[in-house]
Amino acid sequence: MVDTEKGIWLHGLQVSGITHVALGDLLGKMFGVTVVVEDVARCLAHLESLRCKPENARDLVYLYLGAGVGAGLILRTEPYYGRHGMAGEVGHLIVEEAGARCSCGNTGCLETVVSSASILGRFQRRLSEGVISSLQKYRDGGGLSLEVIRDAASDGDRLAQSTLYELGTLLGEAASKIIKLFNPGTLIIGGPVALLGEHFFEPMRIRIEQKVIPEMLVDLAIKTAPSNPDEEAVGAACLAERCFWETATESFG
Ligand SMILES: [Zn+2]
Question: Are 154 and 109 in contact (CB under 8 A)?
Fold first, then answer.
């Protein structure tokens, strides 16, 4: 999580005990350039808004599913930051009653359900309970990955299919809330977890259709595709360039 306004990296799931690092100042002094500290979901949202047809780029939400979970918001063609540059922290929408404890202190947050580590953890727990599955060979021995889970579901593995259905439904619960809040024209679900494919996304779509007012779904483009690190870097560069021109315009204007 970052505070874009102050250029501070606040905290992250994989780095416990280190918080509130003035990353913008540190890197700026090190390299002698202006540094923009940005959220990966916002970088990808901006990149997709540049790629979309103008009518689809106007109100766009990019829901990023990876080590962390968050949303990048483009509202009326502009990246939306909120008061502290932290808008879009949808990873902490609560979707599972009595769910796992989240780093934010609550339980059942979206991030504890569909982040990459939480998905792998859920599968490991079920395998350790002895559920019959082609994935049992990965129990205790490592090697379990999102790709392996996707392939097992495609090959008919019932544990993989039913667990992805459960996770996709919970994702749909959060996506429904996001659609109701922002009424976007485009919703993109990306990040590494998006490679899980249709056994994950079909229940998400079903839940969205169950929960969202039908009129809000008219002309809503829902795109699901895994992003790669190159796209994240390109998105960051595009957003940094946008900040540069905004600053330059203010200086000369
Ligand atoms: Zn949380």
Answer: no
